[in-house]
């Protein structure tokens, strides 16, 4: 089952840039789903991601079902832990936090997820997840108890991505962290892009169409935006379907 992944590869081949809107289950009441997803449908977004670093209420299941009622866009889980799995989505980013050295986030949570995953038919996409310093401490850093990679260590960051690719990861995700004050630098994006052949995802702190275009120009294949939509739904007007 590789439909979602093949679609990502095809879009890259055809030169179509991809954008995922991140929905944080704790910040999205079920009754807001319909209007929000309708806006996503009218925008240039190609994917919806669903997840949070730590969830207070486990509403992932209900929200996933509601989202699928209103859109044909692929819904991909982007979980901070194994409790956020639901069969109501299409796929799962099977993230390994390779910027850090916390065994739980490298392999531990993954093992715990297996009994549940065995009962589901999600498309599981092995994804290297690299947290980059952005100026403030983000939820991922706090929860995972790992330090982000320093911005100045561009070479180390790109070697980390390459090692992830050699380990068999199918996507690489450069993450500045949700709400980052400083998105991942173009220099880092292009250095990583030149090292790897697998699709490159970039997210964290992207708040304008200019930031978005900058990430694409540097080599991002898929960009993830959460906070800009949470804070100001008029942000959708900036990214109205332009293809
Ligand atoms: C494979 C499975 C089941 C789990 C993977 C678990 C790993 C390794 C996660 C990586 C580290 C992590 C905590 C990622 C969270 C990614 C995420 C959903 C970020 C967006 O959430 P935030 O916005 O940062 O958090 P808030 O919910 O606090 O806003
Ligand atoms: O909320 P923002 O800052 O857009 O970040 C999105 C995503 O990369 C976080 O995991
Ligand atoms: Mg968030």
Automatic annotation (TrEMBL):
Q: Which Gene3D superfamilies match?
A: FMN-linked oxidoreductases (3.20.20.390)
* Keywords in alphabetical order: Lipid biosynthesis, Lipid metabolism, Magnesium, Metal-binding, Phospholipid biosynthesis, Phospholipid metabolism, Transferase
Write down the SUPFAM superfamilies for this protein, in alphabetical order: FMN-linked oxidoreductases
Q: Which cofactor does it need?
A: Mg(2+)
Pfam family for this entry, one: PcrB
InterPro entries named in the record: GGGP/HepGP_synthase_I, GGGP/HepGP_synthase_sf, GGGP_HepGP_synthase, GGGP_synth
Which annotated residues bind sn-glycerol 1-phosphate?
173-179, 204-205, 226-227
Q: Out of the domains of life, which is the source?
A: Bacteria
EC number annotated for this UniProt entry: 2.5.1.41
Residues reported in the UniProt entry to bind Mg(2+): 24, 53
Q: Which reaction does it catalyse?
A: sn-glycerol 1-phosphate + (2E,6E,10E)-geranylgeranyl diphosphate = sn-3-O-(geranylgeranyl)glycerol 1-phosphate + diphosphate
What does this gene product do? Prenyltransferase that catalyzes the transfer of the geranylgeranyl moiety of geranylgeranyl diphosphate (GGPP) to the C3 hydroxyl of sn-glycerol-1-phosphate (G1P).
Q: Which family does it belong to?
A: Belongs to the GGGP/HepGP synthase family. Group II subfamily.
What name does this protein carry?
Answer: Geranylgeranylglyceryl phosphate synthase
Source species, please?
Answer: Winogradskyella pelagia
